[in-house]
Design a protein that fits this description.
Number of helices: 1
Strand content: over 45%
Length: about 270
C-alpha cells in the first residue's frame, strides 16, 4: 500500500506544526475521490489560549470512506490564498523537522476518528523557536484525509481557530465595610501574556464592564463600562447601597480571550 510522502516543516515553531500544507506530489495526477470529513474541532471547539509556557492542544475530526481511512493531517496556517499562501515564521526549512501525521482510530470499517497534538511554545529558551505577539489572531485549519485505496480529500480552509494571549483580570472594592450611601471605589487591572518578553503587561484602552451581584442572588448586572489606562489599570466610583459582590468583566478580542474577575464582597452597613 502506497503511503504519501512526509513534507518538511516550514515554520520556525517546529513543535507547533504550523506548516505549509500541500497535496503530495504522488497524488498530483490522480483523480480525487472524496474522503468525507466532519466534526473537526480543537479541544471541544475552544480557542487556543497560550500564557507564558507551552500549551498542548488536540485537534480531531471524523473521516469516512468506503475503503476505510489510511491517514490524516491537520495544519494551522494563515495568509492570502495563492501559490504560496502559508505564513512562516522565517524563510528557512528547519532541518530534520517533519510534520507529524494524525493518529487514526477505526470506529468502523469505513470511519475513523483522527486526532493530532500541537504544542505551542512562547519560550525560545526551551524550544529554540517561539511564538511572538504578532502570531496572535485567526488561523485557518487545513485538513487532509487519505483512504485505504489511496484516494484523498484536501480542504485548505476547512475552518478557523483563534490563537490568543492569555488574559488576567483583578478587582478590589473598598473601603469595607462601608456605610450606606458612601462612595465605593472599585479598582482592578487587565493584563495579558506578552510572548515577546515572557511576562504579563497591561492591556491598554480596552472596555471593561463593572458588574454587581446582590448578596443572596446569582446574577451579575452591568453598572457601567470603564476603559483601561495605558498600564491596564481600572478605577471608578459608585455609591454603596447594599451588600454584594463587585467584579470586572472583559469581553475579549480576536487576540485575547474574555476574562472575568472573581467577585469582591463588600459589606454595606
Amino acid at each position: 500500500m502506497r503511503k504519501r510522502a512526509v513534507f518538511a516543516l516550514l515554520s520556525a515553531v517546529a513543535a507547533a506544526a504550523l506548516a505549509g500544507f500541500a497535496i503530495p506530489s504522488a497524488y498530483g495526477t490522480e483523480t480525487q475521490t472524496d474522503v468525507q470529513i466532519s466534526n473537526v474541532s480543537f479541544d471541544g471547539h475552544k480557542n487556543i489560549v497560550v500564557g507564558l509556557y507551552a500549551e498542548t492542544i488536540t485537534v480531531s475530526g471524523t473521516f469516512t470512506h468506503p475503503s476505510g481511512i489510511q491517514d490524516a493531517d491537520f495544519v494551522l496556517w494563515r495568509g492570502p490564498d495563492g501559490a504560496n499562501p502559508y505564513e512562516t515564521y522565517d524563510d528557512r526549512i528547519v532541518s530534520n523537522q517533519y510534520h507529524s501525521h494524525a493518529d487514526c482510530v477505526a470506529e468502523s470499517p469505513t470511519t475513523s476518528t483522527c486526532s493530532q497534538t500541537f504544542s505551542l511554545e512562547p519560550d525560545w529558551r526551551y524550544s529554540g523557536t517561539a511564538l511572538t505577539n504578532a502570531h496572535a489572531g485567526t488561523w485557518k485549519v487545513s485538513v487532509q484525509g487519505v483512504a485505504n485505496d489511496d484516494s484523498w480529500t484536501h480542504t485548505a480552509n476547512y475552518t478557523t481557530t483563534r490563537l490568543q494571549r492569555l488574559s488576567k483580570l483583578t478587582v478590589n472594592a473598598g473601603p469595607e465595610p462601608i456605610a450606606n450611601g458612601k462612595t465605593l471605589t472599585v479598582t482592578g487591572k487587565l493584563t495579558r501574556a506578552d510572548w515577546n518578553n515572557l511576562d504579563y503587561f497591561g492591556y491598554t484602552n480596552q472596555p471593561v464592564k463593572l458588574q454587581f451581584r446582590k448578596a443572596g442572588t446569582t446574577i451579575y448586572t452591568t453598572i457601567k463600562t470603564v476603559y483601561t489606562s495605558s498600564t491596564g489599570n481600572l478605577t471608578t466610583t459608585v455609591p454603596a447601597s447594599e451588600d454584594g459582590y463587585w467584579r470586572w468583566n472583559f469581553a475579549g478580542t480576536s487576540t485575547t480571550p474574555a476574562v472575568k474577575a472573581t467577585g469582591d464582597f463588600v459589606d454595606v452597613q
